[in-house]
Amino acid sequence: MGVAVDRDAAIYFMKDASSIVLSGSTIDYPPGTENCHHEIELVVAIGEPAFRIATEEAASAIFGYACGIDLTRRDLQLLARDKGRPWDLGKNFENAAVISAIIAAGASGLIDSGNISLSVNDETKQDGDIRDLIWTIPELIADLSQYYHLVPGDLIYTGTPAGVGPVLPGDRITGRIDNVGEITLTIAL
Question: Per residue in 143-152, pLDDT tens?
């Protein structure tokens, strides 16, 4: 998004429970924006409590994985970023966190590589590899656990490859992550 990568400090934001919507859903175009964007992400589901856990032990807290689409009201996010304000209005809104079924980590082991891609109306927009995440999954869990008591049921959307872009009413969004599955979403007309 035109900003230098900061490996020293991860950027986190929260989404409340009303933002979760299941794969296969049709949702309305989000209110309050003229520039809603898609972001395909690997989702990590926490299955064991973790607080101040070491990176080397962090994988033990993982229950499983899912495909996720993080919808962002980009115009509101950028306005907040430019003014040094929180990103809440841009990131946390109803139906902004689409999720597929969660697969157990035992079926896949630690996911640290594999294709991650997203298409809008059958045109590929994002295509990358999980290995290119700025932070590894264990690093994210360990870092977050320094600030929060992670508990079973917590979901961590981990980051997105290049190619994020706008969605419009009527768009059909599909995504796929190797060894995890597929995800779909339709934006209502």
Answer: 999 999 999 9
Provide the number of structural domains found in the chain.
1
What CATH number does residue 113 fall under? 3.90.850.10
The pTM of this model reads 0.95
Note whether 121 and 184 are within 8 A (CB): no
Q: Which among 43, 28, 41 has a CA at the least distance from the CA of 171?
A: 28
HSE-CB at 189 with a 13 A cutoff on CA atoms is 1
Which residues neighbour 26 within 8 Å (Cβ) at sequence distance 6 or greater?
A: 185, 186, 187, 188
CA distances from 62 to 77, 87, 167 (A): 30, 27, 31
Q: What is the longest distance spanned by two Cα atoms in the chain?
A: 47
Tokens of 101: 């079924």
